[in-house]
Amino acid sequence: MASITIHSSSTVVPSHPTPTGTFSFSECDQYRAWTHLPTIYVYKSPATEVVAVESLKTSLSQILVPYYPLAGRLHWLPGGRLELDCCAAGVLFVEASTDAKLEDYGDFAPSDAVRQLIPTVDYNSPIEELPLLLFQVTRFSCGGVVIGVANCHTVVDGASAITFINSWASMARGEKTVETILQPLHDRKFLMPEKPLRPPRFDHIEFTKPPPVILGSSNPEEEAKQETTSALLKLTKEQIEKLKKKANSNLTNQTMGVADEVQPRPYSRFEAITGHMWVCACKARNTGESRQPTVIRIPIDVRRRMQPPIPENFSGNSSFVVLTPECEFGELMSQPLSYAAGKVREGTWKMTGEYAQSVVDYLAGQDDISWLRTSFHSKVLVKASFWGNPNLSIGSWISLPFYEADFGWGRPSYFGPATLNIDGKSYIMVGPSDDGSLIVAIRLQARHMDGFKKYFYEDI
Hints:
The structure is a single chain. The protein is of the alpha+beta class. It has helices at about 25-30, 55-65, 110-115, 160-170, 205-210, 220-225, 235-250, 255, 270-285, 330-335, 335-350, 355-365, 445-460, and strands at about 5-10, 20-25, 35-45, 75, 80-85, 90-100, 135-140, 145-150, 230-235, 295, 295-300, 320-325, 325-330, 390-395, 415, 425-430, 440-445. The protein folds into 2 domains: about 5-190, Chloramphenicol Acetyltransferase (2-Layer Sandwich); about 210-400 and about 420-460, Chloramphenicol Acetyltransferase (2-Layer Sandwich). Helix content is about 25%, strand content about 20%. The strands form 4 sheets. It has a 6-stranded mixed sheet with strand order 1-6-7-8-3-15, covered by helices on one side. The longest helix has 17 residues, at about 270-285. About 45% of the residues are buried. InterPro entries: CAT-like_dom_sf, Plant_Fungal_Acyltransferase. It comes from Cucurbita maxima (Pumpkin).
């Protein structure tokens, strides 16, 4: 593991006075992990003189004015809920260097070594002292630079965080100003419970039903203790088209669950790839028990599913999880890919605006929300169920514009998560090239990874 030298650590505060007082979160914010999601931006050999840290800090200070909630601090409320103190305490900015070269980190798959490129968060400290946003700029001996980002998931989701980073980058390179960036909308009114609070209109098994466990074992904690490893698996545009063609080759109204007079919509990239990953995981994890139950847990962004839609400049969390129907290893492995893709669609299409509002009402009715929180990106203990073997949790980062983060020295050569801490956790991400390729970042138990990789490519 390469040695990282920290040269300075400073707090960057908004450049001008910002609104103060207590900020209330929506239920969608409340059940997200209060820990920090770590991601990295890799830049190959920008000119040393171009990477002006003071310019980065100045533009960061400026953009924190419209994004003032990110400079605040969290406070606990009864029932495991949180509120935000808009106190302009600032964000952490770390300058570091290493004698290593970018190539020493290989493909930057999530690992302890990559995690060193992210600022350390001391979760033993009171939550009121923890910055919500942390950055680390690490210079490599080859001239490359990595920007490590840790953002508090209670305050922002992936889409909101990327909008912030890209706006900051546009200001750092002198293209935009505070006045000309897309102004963030902090109002959480879009995902608030009905008043008076009414019972949820749906049965939310994504919260109430424990995930399937390994047959013959009633203790998922043993699975959670197994050694895990992560990998980045690239899919070319041609491979993606093959998977889509394979998934749609058996497309019928019956497999789609629609009436005969309705023209079935072809399976998307996400549905085909997710179904393929599910089948490959079943094969890799297969212990000979064909009746082993399994599900996939999928976060769905509801911005466009609400009526009316949530504005694009919304700065909070706007995703809820859904579950695919419970399947068995044997049926997934024996059926064509259209079967698994259809089960993925059956789960994701359930998330309508009405269903999302019902989730909000369900969460608002919980006296204590702590047991619902999961954390796939830190080692902080949480009360939620273990979602690993025999299950998967797959998020789509396909449409997020990571590679617009040009701080003045060009597009990043790679963006991805620094940590996937739980077996079964995966993201499907857009690749750095404009060639239609995608990258699958996944963590599995070490004993299953080689088999998963084998089936992942052989079965395309």
